[in-house]
Amino acid sequence: MPLFEADLQFMREALKEAQKAYVAGEVPVGAVLVIDGQIIARAHNQVELLNDSTAHAEMLALTAAFHAMGSKYLPQATLYVTLEPCLMCTGALYWSQIGRVVFASADEKNGYRIHQKRMHPFHPKTSVQGGLLAEESTRLLKDFFAGRRL
């Protein structure tokens, strides 16, 4: 399967995770972690459920992947996440030495890019791509927050 088609498929899986978060009353962010075309971890935000401000989708997916792989490094992995990672998640992704990060929506308030000056905050070998299925992700986020403001 060509890379772009695979990227779309896996981002759709991340969006399914985000929908689970939405239904649970969590900020709708989902993530899947893929190695060699196989999902090895999936997660969605569980901050409210776990009463843990670090329970972001990326963090939970990384922890599951570390356990599944028996390794603290994931240079061969790609993380698909529906929202641009925050600084906390970017730090965890840095330490994991993840190979690639693909995100959907930009996060203008808390994303890593608003804090980035000239440096690439991920591991030097990590490639980053943003904007894949951003409309779908942004719509889910806007719907969630609009419902909270009623």
Task: Kindly summarize this structure in a few lines.
This protein is of the alpha/beta class and 150 residues long.
Structural overview:
Strands 2-1-3-4-5 form a five-stranded mixed β-sheet. The chain starts with a helix and ends with a helix. The chain is built from five helices and five strands, in the order αββααβαββα. With 150 residues, it is an alpha/beta fold. α1 (3-23) runs parallel beside α5 (134-148).
- Per DSSP, the total helix count is 5
Largest sheet: 5 strands, mixed
Helix amount, in percent? 40-55%
Strand and helix order: HEEHHEHEEH
Radius of gyration: 14 Å
Our measurement of the CA-to-CA distance between the termini, rounded to an integer number of angstroms, reads 44 Å
Shape: globular
Q: Percent of residues in beta strands?
A: 15-25%
Strands of the biggest beta sheet: in what spatial order? 2-1-3-4-5
DSSP E strands, number: 5
